[in-house]
Structures are given as structure tokens and as C-alpha cells.
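Consider this record:
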Amino acid sequence: MLDDPLDYVRRVHEPWTRPPDCTLYFDIDPEIAAERAGATNKFEQAAFLERVRENYEELIAAEPERFVRIDAEQPLDDVRERVEAVLDERVD
């Protein structure tokens, strides 16, 4: 077991990875995400998705300027509009 899995992943990829300028984080409650996905395998189970969400929260805390949180619980058209607005702001 690794003491800090996120740190391990960062160190492994550091030599050849260029960090993204912007990462869109589609934030959604794990229960809702599992329900929408059908919860047909371990990657779609709420407990697993909760751990994924926790890891993303750590990444966001470490690089808040890189991440843009999108509320994915909103209607699809609202999510799309938010994504388009963010891209318009960030892309020259």
C-alpha cells in the first residue's frame, strides 16, 4: 500500500508529462453519478466514485488555478453553456 498514491502518480509521470493548462472538473454527487451510469461495474459504484471525487478534491486544492469546477448535477444545457463559457474565457 502506498502512503500517498497521488504523489506516487505525479512522480511517475513527471518526467514526460506536460501539465494541462486547464482541467474541467465535472462535479457530481457519487450517488447520482452511479445512478446515471447504471452502476454496472466497480467503476460505476458510488463508493468507488466517492474515492475518485476525494482524489480530485486533493488535486484541486493543490492546483486551484488549473481546475474549473462544473456543476454536473445541472441540466445538460446548463452544463454545456458553462463549459462553452469557460472555454471562451480560457482559449485565445
The first strand starts at residue 23 and ends at 27.
